[in-house]
Design brief:
Layout: H1 2-27, H2 34-42, H3 50-55, E1 57-76, E2 80-97, H4 99-104, E3 106-112, E4 114-116, E5 122-124, E6 127-131, E7 134-138, E8 148-152
């Protein structure tokens, strides 16, 4: 029954993460101008808005899931993704934040799948998020079933 609860919990969390990530992008689109900004922010060297570039900052974000074996993870960093991975797993991305994004923040998160604990019971794999080399969140070695999340500013 514990495995069923863990799987249902992971599915619920992944759904929430994906809906949160998708909802933020769709609400702002009311015309032709938001679409070029969105595509410009996906390309690291985009030439969209020279005035905006002056206020932008680049943050290096690293998502990490420790452990051994294979598990499924869901993450939000440079997009929303779910992957089957071999542990340990690490992904580093550079996020370019506009002035507005620096004020409200941009969500990054990782929801690790389950791995066997020392007692043989399944538990979430340990995860961490670092921004510009500084650890900003962890799931207390797998004790927090919600994984890791942080608003990058």
């Amino acid at each position: 029954m514990g495995m069923r609860k863990a799987t249902a919990g992971l599915a619920l969390i992944v759904s929430g993460v994906l809906l949160t990530g998708c909802g933020g992008g769709d609400d702002g689109g009311a015309g032709g101008k938001p679409a070029p900004s969105a595509s410009g922010s996906e390309e690291p060297g985009g030439s969209t808005g020279g005035a905006d570039k002056g206020g932008e900052v680049v943050r290096e974000v690293t998502l990490e899931v420790r452990g051994t074996g294979k598990t499924q993870i869901a993450y939000v960093a440079d997009g929303n993704r779910t992957e089957q991975v071999t542990l340990p797993w690490k992904k580093t991305v550079e996020l370019s934040l506009t002035k507005a994004e620096q004020e409200v923040g941009v969500l990054v998160s990782v929801v690790p799948g389950s791995v066997p604990g020392e007692d043989g019971m399944l538990k979430p794999a340990p995860c961490t998020i670092t921004v510009d080399g500084e650890k900003v969140d962890d799931n207390q070695d797998g004790k927090d079933v919600l994984g890791c999340k942080h608003m990058v500013k």
